[in-house]
Write a structure and sequence with these properties.
The complex is a heterodimer of chains A (395) and B (166). Chain A is built from 12 helices and 12 strands. Chain A is an alpha+beta fold and 395 residues long. Chain A has 2 domains: 107 residues, Phosphorylase Kinase, domain 1 (2-Layer Sandwich), CATH 3.30.200; 227 residues, Aminoglycoside phosphotransferase (APH), C-terminal lobe (Aminoglycoside 3'-phosphotransferase, Chain: A, domain 2). In chain A, the strands form 4 sheets. A 5-stranded antiparallel sheet of chain A has the order 1-2-3-5-4, sandwiched between helices. A 3-stranded antiparallel sheet of chain A has the order 10-11-12. Chain A has a two-stranded antiparallel ribbon with strand order 6-9. In chain A, β2 and β3 form a beta hairpin. By secondary structure, chain B is an all-alpha fold. The chains are: A alpha+beta (395), B mainly alpha (166). The interface between A and B is large, with 43 and 41 residues.
């Protein structure tokens, strides 16, 4: 039997064989398990992160730079973020001061993901949708305590100052004046991502997929492996959902780059003009069926009912019919109702894996900088699974 | 139910010790002292909560014994002793045994569901789905009611109180 807190080499090998994942996903999940029996997250102070950032930058550009004004950033349930000012001379440019962000994972993360992939996708999205400029990656934690990337600071907020929300940006209540402006931008951005042929993007750590079911099979392998690695008590409904998803895999006509966690809270906008300035949190990005991003954004946990008490707002931003119509017009992707339903089930199941499996495991094993938030998140599991149950009942 | 008191206490204590307590204004003696007391209180709770039920059963055993030894003038003590002994008789399983039985049935049910979907025919799959969905409906209703104070629900008033569901 698998000891999930101290998995043996043989048990890890068996999981890798049983659930064939993309090579980079396999690498980071294997690293997680290999290090699981080791220490929990060790609290880091700003000095340690500033020194680690300096070491990373030095390894890339030499000694001619200075770091100042290091400070913590809030936001994001899964990664630590430190803002700082870098005085440096970018290649072929005059010396200047740049606002930067260090984004570092803890010992284990609620979504175990690759900093290398995050680095690549931010670079690939430059010029397609607003993203922060990305500079350096420390994927093997050679310079910092844990794997990290450094990217440029972008002005903006994840919610207006007067808005209220739950953890991780869920349940953000926006007034109509914000929605009218941000909703169409929210749709346009993901339509542009999906419209871009994945094969034209430089993403060496991503597996490209031909049309068919290969991409969804990889996704199921990934998340079922995470469930096997992390879940404590079993959940019959989660087993049913997984079995149903395996049996009903829809072929994908044209795999595209997916954001993977597209919703309110994962983009920045400036308050003075309500303009989206950066799409963030690409750590779950992969090549797959565009219906995934639509289904994720449409999840009930991320949406709200408008002031009229009846209009459902996708991501709390835009009425559902308008979301789908605009997306179809702008992306050129034909939405298939049955496929969208399949991906809603998939998204509900993945959220169950994250909330009930990983959040519990990493909080219990003291692996993060905010275990108490991870434990808090476990409590949303029943609500997420209620939606999953309703979706399965319609299948 | 995955989010139980042990994890809630463990993570709350860690946040208090590693993040909150160091940030408390050292010049505010009352806040410093009460932060330490809160930490101590939660640590005591975390250590003793798993034993609380056994502790109460143990106490009841000795009170039943004591009541036998005491002179009973009007029979009230004998009645209370009989009631106490009857409660003890019903309180045989420990909370740990109860949880172990739940976890075992969850695990084996999951394995049967997976196998039925993989190897069974359409009628079997339909039947399995029907029963699992019916079970989940009742179980999830209780879990949502239990965690309603966290504020995840859009319409919490639509949920029954957990006290009425158990």
């Amino acid at each position: 039997m698998l000891d999930k807190d101290q998995p043996s080499a043989a048990a890890i090998a068996a999981l890798r064989t049983r659930f064939a994942c993309e090579p980079e996903i396999d690498r980071i999940l294997t690293r997680k398990l290999t290090e699981r029996a080791g220490a929990g997250y060790v609290h880091q102070d700003l000095r340690a992160l500033r020194d680690g950032s300096a070491a990373l930058i030095r390894a890339n550009i030499g000694d001619d730079f200075a770091i100042s004004d290091a400070r913590w950033l809030t936001g994001g349930a899964s990664k630590l973020q430190m803002a700082f000012t870098l005085e440096w001379s970018p290649p072929a440019e005059a010396r200047r001061k740049s606002a930067m962000v260090l984004r570092m994972q803890p010992a284990e993360s609620v979504v175990e993901s690759s900093r290398l992939r995050e680095f690549e996708v931010l670079a690939a999205m430059h010029g397609i949708v607003p993203v922060p400029p990305v500079y350096w990656v420390d994927d093997e934690a050679r310079h910092l305590p844990y794997p990290a990337i450094v990217y440029g600071f972008v002005d903006g907020v994840t919610k207006p100052r007067e808005a209220t929300s739950q953890a991780s940006g869920m349940g953000t209540q926006l007034a109509a004046r914000w929605r009218d402006s941000l909703g169409p931008q929210f749709v346009s951005a993901i339509a542009r991502v999906h419209r871009t042929p994945a094969s034209t993007l430089v993403l060496p750590s991503f597996e490209q997929h031909a049309a068919g079911t290969a991409c969804i099979e990889r996704t199921l392998n990934h998340w079922e492996r995470v469930w096997e690695e992390d879940a404590d008590e079993d959940v019959p409904l989660m087993r049913l959902a997984c079995a149903w998803l395996r049996r009903n895999m829809p072929p994908c006509a044209r795999p595209a780059l997916l954001h993977g966690d597209y919703r309110m809270g994962n983009f920045l906008f400036t308050e003075h003009d309500a303009r989206i300035t950066a799409i963030l949190d690409w750590e779950m990005a992969r090549i797959g069926d565009p219906h995934f991003d639509l289904a994720w954004a449409m999840n009930r946990a991320y949406g709200l009912v408008a002031e009229d008490g009846k209009t459902w707002l996708v991501a709390g931003l835009i009425p559902e019919h308008e979301f789908l119509a605009r997306y179809q017009d702008e992306s050129g992707v034909r939405i298939d109702v049955e496929t969208l339903h399949y991906y809603k089930v998939l998204c509900g199941w993945v959220q169950g894996v994250i909330a009930l499996g990983t959040a519990w495991r990493i909080a219990r094993n003291r692996k993060t900088h905010q275990d108490v938030l991870m434990a808090w998140i476990v409590g949303i599991g029943a609500k997420l699974l209620s939606e999953l149950r309703e979706l399965l009942a319609k299948s | 139910m995955q989010l139980r008191e042990d994890l809630q206490l463990q993570t709350a204590i860690r946040a208090l010790v590693e993040v909150i307590a160091p940030a408390v204004d050292a010049g505010n003696a009352l806040a410093v002292e009460q932060t330490q007391i809160v930490i101590g209180m939660l640590q005591l709770m975390a250590a003793r909560l798993p034993l609380q039920y056994q502790y109460d059963c143990d106490e009841l055993v000795r009170l039943v014994d004591l009541s036998r030894a005491l002179e009973d003038h009007d029979g009230r003590l004998a009645t209370a002793r009989a009631a106490g002994a009857e409660v003890l008789a019903r309180a045989q399983a420990t909370p740990q045994e109860l949880l172990a039985a739940i976890r075992n049935l969850r695990k084996l049910s999951g394995a049967v569901i997976t196998a039925a979907y993989r190897d069974g025919d359409d009628a079997t799959r339909t039947s399995v789905s029907k029963h699992v969905l019916a079970h989940a409906e009742q179980q999830l209703l209780r879990e949502r009611a239990w965690f309603a104070p966290q504020g995840w629900e859009l319409q919490p008033e639509s949920l029954p109180d957990i006290e009425n569901l158990l």
